[in-house]
Write a structure and sequence with these properties.
This is Glycosyltransferase. GO terms for molecular function: UDP-glucosyltransferase activity. Keywords: Glycosyltransferase, Transferase. The protein has 473 residues and is α/β, with parallel strands linked by helices. It has 2 domains: 211 residues, Rossmann fold (3-Layer(aba) Sandwich); 166 residues, Glycogen Phosphorylase B (Rossmann fold), CATH 3.40.50.2000. 45% of the residues lie in helices and 16% in strands. The strands form 3 sheets. An 8-stranded mixed beta sheet has the order 3-4-2-1-5-6-9-10. A 6-stranded parallel beta sheet has the order 13-12-11-14-15-16, with helices on both faces. A two-stranded antiparallel sheet has the order 7-8. Helix 12 packs across helix 17. The chain binds uridine-5'-diphosphate-xylopyranose.
C-alpha cells in the first residue's frame, strides 16, 4: 500500500468542469489521498487568489497550483462562442506546461484529468503513471459522442442545414443505451459539425482515447443510466467505466466557484414562503438573446411568482433588442412589488437546499441538473448550448421531474412571454406540477442512496480509492 499517494488533478478550464473535479478531489482528500489541483493561472487566481495554496481535508491535503494557458485575458470577455473558443484553445495550450510541472513533482501515483483533455493520456504514458479520466457530463452524452461516426453516417448529425424541413423531426434510435431522441434534441455542439470538420475529428479522438485510460469516472449514478453504463462498458471494453456522481460536496470549507457567491440571498430566501420561490440560473457560460430575456422578464412579471435570479454580467447577448433601460425598469418594478431578487452569482447548492425553493428555471447544464435532482427541486428547462437540449428532453419526457418551454418555430424558435407564464403557473399552481414535485422528491431519495455508504456511487468511489492506495489502477 502506498502510504500517502499523491494524485495530480487537471480540469478543463471552465467552471462546469472545474466544480466536479474539485468535488472529487475533496472526497479523495477526505479518504487520505493528497491532491495537486492544477488550474490555468487565470482560474487558479479566481479560485484561490494566490500562486500556491494548500488546503487540508481531514487526512489528505490539496495543493492548488497554476500553469500558463497562453491565452490573452480579453479572449474570455465575449459571449458564449468567444468564451468557449478561448477555453478550447487554453485547454490545448495547457498540455506542455502541465507536463513540465508533472516532472517537477515527487511521488505522483496517477493523473486524474478531464476526459476532454485528450493529451493527458500521452503525458501520463510518458511520465509512466496511469491516467484516470473524469467525464463531467452524463453517460448518454458520452455515448452520443462515442457514436458520432454512426450518427453522421445515418445523416442525423454533421448536416449542412439542420433546420431543413423534417430533419429536426427525425427520431434517433440507433445509439445503444440511449433513449430514443428527436434530432432537434441532440447536443447543439454536435449538430453543426460536419464530417470533415477538424473539431469533429478531435472529438472522436478524445473519446476514443478513453479506451486507454485506466478508469473512466462519470458524474452520474447507475440507477439513472444503467443501460447506458453497460453499453459504454462494452464499447470501451472495460469494467472501469464507473459512475461516481453526483459529485456534490455541500460543505467543503473551500471555494468552489470562479465567482464570489452572494450569500445575502439566503437571508432573503428565509423571508419567503416554503416552496414558493423560482430560482433562475443559466450557469457559467451560456448567454441569451435580448428577445428571450424580454420574454422571461414579462412572463415572470405576469405570474408574480417570487424569484431569485443569478444573473452574470455577460448573460445577455449584446444586441439592440433589449436595452439596459428596460432591464432597469423591470428591476425597479420587481423591487417595488417585492417580487424578486437578482444577484450576480448565487451559492447555488445552498439555494437549492433552501425550504423556500419551489422550482429551478435552468439552462440544464449537467451540474445544475444533478444539483436540482439531489435537492428534489423540479426543473423548468431552458436549454441553450452543448448537451443541454438533450438533458432538458430527459428531464421533461423521460424522468418527468420538470417541464420544458415550447419554442415557437414561426418565431425562429423563440419562447414567448405567454409560454413562460404558462409553464411557471403549471409548476406552481396545477395538479401536474404537484406530480412533478413528487417525482423530483423521489429522485432526490434515489440520489441520496447512491452517494451514501453502500450506494452505487459510494461503492465505486471506494473501489477507486483502494485502487489508488494499493497502486492497482
Ligand atoms: C457547462 C455546460 O453547460 C454543461 O452542460 C456541461 O455539462 C458542463 O459545462 P455550465 O454551463 O457552467 O457548464 O453549467 P453547469 O454544468 O450547470 O455548471 C454550473 C455550476 O455553477 C453549477 O455547479 C452551479 O451550482 C454553479 N453556479 C451557477 C453557482 O454556484 N452559482 C450561480 O449563480 C450559477
Amino acid at each position: 500500500m502506498v502510504e500517502r499517494p499523491r494524485v495530480v488533478a487537471v480540469p478543463f478550464p471552465m467552471q462546469g468542469h472545474i466544480s466536479p473535479l474539485l468535488q472529487l478531489s475533496y472526497q479523495l482528500a477526505a479518504a487520505g489521498i493528497d491532491i495537486t489541483f492544477v488550474n490555468t493561472f487565470r482560474n487558479h487566481e479566481r479560485l484561490v487568489g494566490s500562486r500556491e495554496v494548500v488546503s487540508k481535508h481531514s487526512s489528505g491535503v490539496i495543493t492548488f497550483m497554476g500553469i500558463s494557458d497562453g491565452v490573452a485575458a480579453k479572449a474570455f470577455d465575449g459571449g458564449f462562442n468567444e468564451s468557449l473558443n478561448a477555453s478550447l484553445v487554453a485547454s490545448d495550450e495547457m498540455a506542455k506546461p502541465f507536463e513540465e510541472l508533472l516532472w517537477k513533482l515527487d511521488g505522483v501515483s496517477c493523473v486524474i484529468s478531464d476526459a476532454y483533455l485528450g493529451w493527458a493520456q500521452a503525458v501520463a504514458n510518458r511520465f509512466g503513471v496511469p491516467r484516470v479520466a473524469l467525464w463531467t457530463s452524463n453517460v448518454a452524452y458520452s455515448l452520443v459522442n462515442y457514436h458520432l461516426p454512426l450518427l453522421v453516417e445515418k445523416g442525423y448529425l454533421g448536416v449542412k442545414d439542420p433546420s431543413s424541413v423534417g430533419f429536426l423531426d427525425n427520431l434517433v434510435t440507433c445509439v445503444p443505451g440511449v433513449e430514443p431522441i428527436y434530432a432537434r434534441d441532440l447536443p447543439t455542439v454536435l449538430r453543426y459539425d460536419s464530417g470533415e470538420d477538424p473539431g469533429f475529428a478531435n472529438r472522436i479522438r478524445k473519446i476514443q482515447a478513453l479506451k486507454h485510460a485506466s478508469w473512466v469516472l462519470v458524474n452520474s449514478f447507475e440507477e439513472l443510466e444503467s443501460a447506458g453504463v453497460e453499453s459504454m462498458r462494452r464499447e470501451l471494453g472495460t469494467q472501469n467505466y464507473v459512475t461516481v456522481g453526483p459529485l456534490l460536496v455541500e460543505d467543503t470549507g473551500g471555494r468552489k466557484s470562479l465567482w464570489s457567491e452572494d450569500e445575502a440571498c439566503l437571508k432573503w430566501l428565509d423571508s419567503q414562503k416554503p416552496g414558493s420561490v423560482l430560482y433562475i440560473s443559466f450557469g457559467s457560460i451560456a448567454s441569451i438573446a435580448g428577445a428571450q430575456m424580454r420574454s422571461i422578464v414579462k412572463g415572470l412579471g405576469d405570474t408574480r411568482q417570487p424569484f431569485l435570479w443569478a444573473m452574470r454580467k455577460n448573460l445577455l447577448v449584446p444586441d439592440s433588442d433589449y436595452s439596459e433601460r428596460s432591464f432597469q425598469e423591470f428591476m425597479g418594478a420587481t423591487k417595488a412589488q417585492g417580487q424578486g431578487l437578482i444577484v450576480e452569482w448565487a451559492p447555488q447548492v445552498k439555494v437549492l437546499q433552501h425550504r423556500a425553493l419551489g422550482g429551478h428555471l435552468s439552462h440544464c447544464g449537467w451540474n445544475s441538473v444533478l444539483e436540482s435532482m439531489a435537492m428534489g427541486v423540479p426543473i423548468l428547462g431552458w436549454p441553450c448550448v452543448a448537451e443541454q437540449t438533450m438533458n432538458c428532453k430527459r428531464i421533461a419526457e423521460d424522468w418527468k421531474i420538470g417541464l420544458r418551454f415550447t419554442t415557437d418555430d414561426a418565431k425562429q424558435q423563440l419562447v414567448s412571454d405567454e409560454e413562460v407564464a404558462r409553464v411557471i403557473k403549471k409548476l406552481f399552481c396545477e395538479g401536474e406540477g404537484r406530480e412533478i414535485k413528487k417525482r423530483a422528491r423521489e429522485f432526490s431519495a434515489i440520489v441520496k442512496t447512491a452517494v451514501s455508504p453502500g450506494g452505487s456511487s459510494h461503492r465505486n468511489l471506494e473501489r477507486l480509492v483502494q485502487a489508488i492506495k494499493f497502486g492497482r489502477l
